[in-house]
Amino acid sequence: MLIRDALPNDEPSWRKLWNGYLAFYQAEVPEDVTLKTWERLIRKQDGLFCRVAETGGEVCGFSLSVLHAGTWTTAPVCYLEDLFVSPDHRGRGIGEALIRDLAGMAKSQGWSRLYWHTQAGNTAARSVYDRFTKADDFVRYRLFF
Known about the structure:
about 25% strand
């Protein structure tokens, strides 16, 4: 398995995974937002970046993250916004490897923190996440405009 930055020619594979991710969360994202998201990920704009997992020449998973400033530290903070592995490739340690990749980047690049969240009932993902750290007691609030 190879984990690397996404490349422009990964777009069809990423899009297939992205669509699977959205279907899992029963979410819809307008096409113009998907196009802009891919552009920002590839250009590493606005702190966004994409790492992909590749096995046998096939992109089979991704992590989409935002590197941003924080108010409690002078070092960058990384938010792992989206993580997805193709259902055909699950159970092989790919999700864990994608998180380990980000943790390694955090250590080597001097980030202060890596954080993420998931749905409480996403037990498969949580079994992977719990290998890194236990969930904290924060409650999330969201406003949409």
